[in-house]
């Protein structure tokens, strides 16, 4: 059996080589024999050792390696391909030089060199606008001295696509590699976007497109900031009225004494200050197209009766007018109120509700689609970095905090927060502590709209879930959160699993 060479064997041969040089009478012959032995041993060594560089060169994931001083000593082809940075340009330079040249915006390696511990963050390559999840690993020798700092990264969009495909497999579905439904989906309507990666939103948008093919009334419900107006535009975009007029009326923004004339128009002389010749209302302006009645739950009771007639008869009477004007308008209504509760309270007509609620669409709150948060954060950072000429990165732990927050203001609150963090950020990095300062997490966030939907048992469960979420957000991890709440760790983890808290 051929002996495997170890480094000690080679060292012994070198010692023999030194002895020959000093003691041997027939130096030339002995050196030649020993050299031949060493060449053979090295050849055998190469045969028996794994060529790690060859392996690294064929990895799909990226590798970026510096020494303990930050000098770049290796990058693999995947890194070059993904970032657009060639090894000829970066090898031999320090990570600090590359940051100073504004080539790489990622502080994982500088922090590893300083803290000598694993670091995770979102990295950014300026030249290609590439963002990836970066994992940093410090490599130490047997004495615990730092030798190398290594990073590898994954494209954020690829991670989300894999997450969605995994969910499909868990449901027993076979994802088609050519089907875009399992990947990150972005739908545009009039230059505005509904951004999502979650299954619940994918199903909702699919339903909205189906609804769009009909011509009946649609009622969109959802909490404030969930994107009800954007969803209405998706319906319009995929309808046969897409090229016709689209009118939006915010029922809560118009004074009640003007609301009727704004919706239905008025004739000349209908009231003091009425225009000569009268004026078309929103319904007449939308004739042939679509009208969105936003915040319809704020509509005064007396106006609701007239709206019901418009929906039933497809005609409108202007204020002060006698003649009915025929209309061809599709109505989309939206509200953040619980209209069934408003009916019980005597604030909303039941017959109008059922006339509007033929095809209901309910937008989920952001807390129920937390898998969308990383993608939304990435898009908002891109938007505000471009707007304010900055480059902002978010740490992985900070992203987890965002996923655990309750988001009573939903996407609007998230967007506003990201803009604030970009504006106020000093070192281009969003950390856990900065997010906690902005959120001011001191209590439990349960919106009043949501409380009304719950039985006592459901309300208690929701309260418990949010206490756990906020404890994790405040303490940074589940271990500390369980201790802060005075809950046994096993019980705490069971509750996290029950409430699907990551």
Structure, explained:
Strand 4 (119-125) and strand 5 (130-140) form a beta hairpin. The strands form 5 sheets. The chain has a 6-stranded antiparallel sheet. It has helices at 7-23, 27-48, 52-57, 77-83, 87-90, 95-100, 108-115, 156-170, 199-212, 228-237, 256-264, 282-285, 301-313, 339-344, 350-356, 373-388, 396-404, 410-424, 432-439, 448-451, 456-475, 478-485, 489-498; strands spanning 64-67, 72-75, 104-105, 119-125, 130-140, 146-155, 185-189, 192-196, 218-221, 246-250, 290-294, 315-316, 325-326, 330-335, 359-362, 393-394, 429-430. It has 502 residues and is an alpha/beta fold. Helices cover 47% and strands 16% of the residues.
Mean pLDDT: 79
Determine and state the CATH class of the largest domain. Alpha Beta
Q: Do you know the CATH architecture of the largest domain?
A: 3-Layer(aba) Sandwich
> For the CA atoms, what is the radius of gyration?
33 Å
Q: Indicate the low-confidence ranges by residue numbers.
A: 1-5, 174-192, 441-453
By DSSP (H or I, 4+ residues per run), the number of helices equals 23
Count of domains: 4
Can you give the helix content as a percent range?
40-55%
Number of strands: 17
Largest sheet: 6 strands, antiparallel
How does the overall form come out from the CA principal axes?
elongated
Entry keywords:
elongated, alpha/beta, disordered N terminus, five-stranded parallel sheet, Beta-Lactamase, Rossmann fold, 502 residues
């Amino acid at each position: 059996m051929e002996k495997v060479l170890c480094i000690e064997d080679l060292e012994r041969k070198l010692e023999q080589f030194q002895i020959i040089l000093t003691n041997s009478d027939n130096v030339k012959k002995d050196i030649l024999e020993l050299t031949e032995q060493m060449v053979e041993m090295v050849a055998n060594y190469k045969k028996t050792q794994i060529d790690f560089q060859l392996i690294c060169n064929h990895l799909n994931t990226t590798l970026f390696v510096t020494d303990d001083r930050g000098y770049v000593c290796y990058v693999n082809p995947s890194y070059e391909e993904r970032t657009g940075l060639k090894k000829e340009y970066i090898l031999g330079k320090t990570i600090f030089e590359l940051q100073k040249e504004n080539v790489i915006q990622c502080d994982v390696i500088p922090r590893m060199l300083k803290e000598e511990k694993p670091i995770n963050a979102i990295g950014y390559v300026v030249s290609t606008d590439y963002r990836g999840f970066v994992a940093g690993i410090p490599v130490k020798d047997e004495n615990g001295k730092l030798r190398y700092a290594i990073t590898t990264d994954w494209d954020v969009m690829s991670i989300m696509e894999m997450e969605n495909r995994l969910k499909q497999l868990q449901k027993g579905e076979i994802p088609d590699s050519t089907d875009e439904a399992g990947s990150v989906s972005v739908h545009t309507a009039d230059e505005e976007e509904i951004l999502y990666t979650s299954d619940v939103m994918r199903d909702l948008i699919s339903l909205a497109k189906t609804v769009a093919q009909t011509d009946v009334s649609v009622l969109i419900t959802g909490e404030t900031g969930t994107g009800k107006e954007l969803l209405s535009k998706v319906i319009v975009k995929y309808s046969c009225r897409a090229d016709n007029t689209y009118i939006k009326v915010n029922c809560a923004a118009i004074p009640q004494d003007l609301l009727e004339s704004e919706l239905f128009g008025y004739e000349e002389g209908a009231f003091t200050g009425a225009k000569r010749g009268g004026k078309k209302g929103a319904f007449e302006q939308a004739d042939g197209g679509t009208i969105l009645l936003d915040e319809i739950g704020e509509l005064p009771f007396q106006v609701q009766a007239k709206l019901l007639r418009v929906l039933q008869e497809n005609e409108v009477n202007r204020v002060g007018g006698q003649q009915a004007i025929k209309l061809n308008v599709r109505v989309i209504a939206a509200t953040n109120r619980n209209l069934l509760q408003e009916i019980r309270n005597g604030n909303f007509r039941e017959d109008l509700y059922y006339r509007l609620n033929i095809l209901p669409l309910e937008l989920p709150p952001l807390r129920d689609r937390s898998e969308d948060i990383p993608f939304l954060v990435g898009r908002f950072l891109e938007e505000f970095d471009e707007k304010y000429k900055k480059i902002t990165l978010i740490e992985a732990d900070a992203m987890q905090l965002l996923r655990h927050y309750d988001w009573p203001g939903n996407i609007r609150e998230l967007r506003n927060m990201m803009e604030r963090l970009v504006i106020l950020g000093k070192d281009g990095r969003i950390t856990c502590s900065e997010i906690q300062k902005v959120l001011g997490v001191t209590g439990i966030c349960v919106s009043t709209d949501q409380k009304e939907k719950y039985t006592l048992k459901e309300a208690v469960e929701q309260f418990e879930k949010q206490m756990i979420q906020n404890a994790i957000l405040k303490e940074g991890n589940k271990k500390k959160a369980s201790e802060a709440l005075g809950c046994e760790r096993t019980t705490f983890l069971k509750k996290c699993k029950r409430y699907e808290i990551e």
